[in-house]
Amino acid sequence: MNTSDVRWCVLIPCLNEEAAIGGVVQSVLDLGAPVIVVDDGSDDRTPDIVGALPVTLLRHAQRRGKGEALRTGFREALRQGYGAVLTMDGDGQHLASDIPRIVAAAKRYPNHIVIGARLLDREQQPKGRRRANAVADWGISWACAQPVADTQSGQRWYPRAALDLVDLPAENFVFEAAILIAATRERGLDVVSVPIASRYQGEFRISHFSPVRDVTRITLYTVGQVFRHGDVMASYRRSRASRPIVFDAAVTG
């Protein structure tokens, strides 16, 4: 893949993904991208499947949550000298075939976080999840003082400035919201979205994300950040003043 001058890798946090993880990792390897997998204390065959593949595998002895899995992966990527990380989930909802467009967007928009935003085939999203995502998008965009599409997507490009936020005091799914807010408000990064398909059908395992518990945690954190950064109404107006930046160019080669 001729994608970017930045040395980057794909990071896949996972928990009990034996049904899909082998195919997900192999599809990324087929693109020629280096892969780091962080197993968050799986008790199925996930680590055995990943361990048979030519990747860096890190394991948590006990479940520590997605935020800590990402944090472990970020630290390993920095240790190996990578300047950016592209994250994706291990359950098959994210496709390696979307990676070239995401990296192309990162090349076009340096110093941006790039989100693979589930803007296509949205009718496949369960109604409860769609509502929860809409609430999260509204609140996190406010906290970021800029519009952000699909703040709950786990397929993202993080440049070095975002990776340096690895020690943010946030856990579980809140960590991904914290990265967006801190990167935009404290590091001056912007966010660009690449449309990808919503994929909820098929043999995916039940999501580890709880629309009630995790949205509540994210909401409480986000509200705190809105007031922490001040200019509350000005931030809200900026978040509503324009549409998210969307990059949707075809990539070949």
Strand element count: 8
Q: Name the poorly predicted regions.
A: none
Mean pLDDT across the residues is: 89
Shape label:
globular
Distance between the termini: 6 Å
Major β-sheet, in short?
A: 8 strands, mixed
Q: What is the percentage of strand-forming residues?
A: 15-25%
Q: What share of the residues lie within helices?
A: 25-40%
**Pairing-aware structural class of the strands and helices?**
alpha/beta
From the alpha-carbon coordinates, what is the Rg to the nearest angstrom?
17 Å
Tally of separate helices: 9
| N-to-C order of helices and strands | EHEHEHEHEHEHHEHHE
Going across the major beta sheet, what is the strand order?
3-2-1-4-6-5-7-8
Describe what you observe in this structure.
The protein is an alpha/beta fold. It is built from nine helices and eight strands. The chain has helices spanning 21-29, 46-51, 66-79, 99-108, 127-144, 160-163, 174-186, 213-229, 232-240, and strands at 8-14, 35-39, 56-59, 84-87, 112-120, 156-159, 190-197, 245-246. Helix 1 (21-29) links the parallel strand 1 (8-14) and strand 2. It is globular, with a radius of gyration of 17 Å. The model has no long low-confidence stretch (mean pLDDT 89).
